[in-house]
From TrEMBL, chain A:
Topology in the lipid bilayer: Multi-pass membrane protein
Domain ABC transmembrane type-1: 88-291
Keyword Protease part of the UniProt annotation: no
Transmembrane domains' residue ranges: 30-58, 87-116, 128-150, 156-177, 272-290
UniProt-recorded name of the protein: Phosphate transport system permease protein PstA
Family to which the UniProt record says this protein belongs: Belongs to the binding-protein-dependent transport system permease family. CysTW subfamily.
UniProt keyword annotation of Nuclease present: no
One Pfam family hit: BPD_transp_1
UniProtKB/TrEMBL annotation, chain B:
Membrane topology qualifier: Multi-pass membrane protein
Family: Belongs to the binding-protein-dependent transport system permease family. CysTW subfamily.
Domain ABC transmembrane type-1: 85-309
Keyword rRNA-binding: no
Descriptive protein name: Phosphate transport system permease protein
Keywords, in A-Z order: Cell inner membrane, Cell membrane, Membrane, Phosphate transport, Transmembrane, Transmembrane helix, Transport
Record carries keyword Protein biosynthesis: no
Amino acid sequence: MTMTTADFSQAAAAKAVPSMRRSFAEPRNLRSYLLTLSVWLIAIIASVPLFSVLYMLISQGGARLSFDLFTQLPPAGFMPGGGFGNAIIGTLVMVGIGSLISIPIGILGGIYLGAISPDSKLSETVRFVGKVLTGFPSILVGVFVFGALVQAMGTFSALAGGVALAIGMLPTVLLTSEQAIRMVPQRMKDAAVGIGCTTTQTVWKVVLPTALPGIMTGIMLGIASAAGESAPLLFTALFSNFWLESLVEPTASLSILIYNFSGMPFPNQIQLAWSASLVLVLIVLVFNILSRLFGNRKV
Amino acid sequence: MAQLKPTSLSEKSISQNPSGAEYATDRGFKWLARASGVGTIVLLVAVLIVIGAEALPAISKHGLSFLTSAVWAPGRNEFGILAEIWGTLYSSILALIIAGFFGVAISIFLTQDFLPPALAQVFRTIVEMLAAIPSVVYGLWGIFVVIPAIRPVANWLHEYLGFIPLFSTSFGGPGMAPAVIVLAIMVLPTVAAISQDAFRLIPYKVKEAAYGMGTTRWEAILKVMVPTAANGIFASLVLGFGRALGETMALAMIIGNANQISLSLFSPANTLASLLASTFPEAGQIEREALMFAALTLLFITFIVNVAGTIIMSFASKQQTS
């Protein structure tokens, strides 16, 4: 059989085409391989700090964990023992105040941005301000509340601390609520409007129940970051070595206790600082995990 | 025209016009929601005004020399924050270089199909958890883990490479180097999260097209994906920089709080935020006024950086989705 021209050109083409097999001897393949290796290394190196922090928290903080920590007051200078019961209460109370203020305002704002007038000039501005506030240094929030509230009241207080935490939480709650509300399918809202619901009824009976998991995610994230917050409290709640008796007196918090004790030359205080860190991280993690649980249920 | 009769079995239709009371509630609720939105804007304006007003006495007293002098002597009523401005920018830039390198590499690692989805989720969670650790805990960790860990390395560098300005002073513990490391770890989640978003916005067909041209995986990433995501990556760096500038407590605990300007990584330094945190609780009236001026300076720097980052980011996501 003689070769047709088609067969001939095919054979020529097969000879002209380079091998499709990947060879590591070729520089570009080798480079690709090395780069892959290095991103693996980078990712593993970047994971080291987290595990180091967790290891220290468990080994150093866990060593001292006992019931006394939760029921006793911080010890003075050379004193042994003691705990940080007042700081746990202070942190919880101030985060509570912060939540009471920021959650309603944040969700209402989110409703405005997501459901009432998503495309208005005002909404654009609010959204922009929210994003700018997200990256706002928390210490400046503390300075602001100091100037606006602490000086007027004449005292550092749990109330001022709560307000400062609320300002820190607000952008998170606001922006995640908006996101969650926007995810509600338009046809559900249309159906509600179609049977004669006002915007308010649509929001309360259709939008909010549907968006609730997403909104809860934002709230939990806000609470988690507020609980770990320290810089604004330094300017608003300061610290106290005693139990919380009123909302208008200096108030202890876990984070400020850690800050104060970390610089002390006494091993007892250092140990307490580690234990307080463990408790604080556990509180933060609980809310973080809650936010993930809510997030997974998102439609 | 004859009125339309409802055709359903029941005589009364389920749809009806809202009653007067419902209209009133509706109006009230909309007003409330609008007020909350406006409140956010008012809040930001109030923050700017209050901090500005607090700083006024110090501005009129010290003037511009406050920004150009590096003396902080409450006893002599002399205040200047040049050293803190330097420390803030220097620590943030160094931290950003480290966090930018790691953050972008990790976002490539997590978005470019290197890992099965479950494993990618594990790494993603690890990076997100870094953001959940409170600043003071990083500070404590910095004092008791980072400083001892880098001490031998720092001593070696100072001994053998001490002629380089970066290593020109001996390592005394708290200082720029541990601060930069901790700061980089704290900024990393921000950079990684925003760059990951930028990579995820790129349609898959872009990569397929690159592969179709016969690129290796890394040629596709470096020559096609990274340039396409460049604006988003840039936004992540700017916003990460904003984070680093305002970071307070961890730095106040490990940077050494020394009022000096030095290129050396091993000498103690100070930043605006940690000056505020470490000095404020025990400061007298005049020193507090001066601190308010420092706060205003910090506000000014971070505000510009954050606004720039937010604008770049919305620009980038608009450009990529269109």
